Amino acid sequence: MTPLAIDLFCGLGGWTQGFLAEGWDVIGFDIERHIYGDHRYPAQLVLQDVRTIHGRQFKDADMIVASSPCQEFSYRAMPWKRAKALPSRNVAPPGRNPPCPAPRNARPASPSR
Ligand SMILES: C[S@@+](CC[C@H](N)C(=O)[O-])C[C@H]1O[C@@H](n2cnc3c(N)ncnc32)[C@H](O)[C@@H]1O
Q1: Which residue puts its alpha carbon closest to atom 11 of ligand 1?
Q2: CB 91 within 8 A of CB 99
Q3: Distance (Å, whole) CA 104 – CA 102
Q4: Among 9, 16, 92, 98, which residue is least crowded by beta carbons within 10 Å?
Q5: In whole numbers, what is the pLDDT of the chain averaged over residues?
């Protein structure tokens, strides 16, 4: 049976292309349909905010990958005063690539060693 991967925040499908090349089926979730020239998402795309998804949508999944937007975090790592002055949470402008809330059952990571 062909394994199924779920690609959350799939964008144009960087993860998806790897899975497809290895013979997997993939379903991608994103809030936008990204099209750049001839490039578009190469598998089944579900247009949905990941904050509204339910686990039953993945009941047949063998793998779930997620690569949430990171621009705000990368910006904060820059040495500019303006970046350092950003508030510690919710740095994204409202309505555009909002930071993702932690899953309800998330626990803090254990310190390594
Ligand atoms: C880092 S990019 C994804 C890159 C992609 N995984 C790849 O391998 O090419 C982040 C993506 O998250 C999407 N996104 C942002 N907020 C989202 C949300 N709340 N629900 C679903 N997708 C979201 C953006 O539209 C964007 O395509």
Answers
A1: 9
A2: yes
A3: 6
A4: 92
A5: 83
Q: Is the model more confident about 43 or about 100?
A: 43
Q: Which residues pair with 66 in a beta bridge?
A: 8
Which residue type does 10 have?
C
Residues touching ligand 1 (Cβ under 6 Å) are 9-15, 29-32, 34, 49-51, 67, 69, 97-98
Closest CA to 64 of 31, 104, 108, 24: 24
Q: Which atom of ligand 1 is nearest to the CA of 70?
A: 1
How large a percentage of the chain has pLDDT more than 70? Answer: 77
Give me the architecture of the 4-84 domain, per CATH: 3-Layer(aba) Sandwich (3.40)
Residue 35, H or E segment: strand 35-36
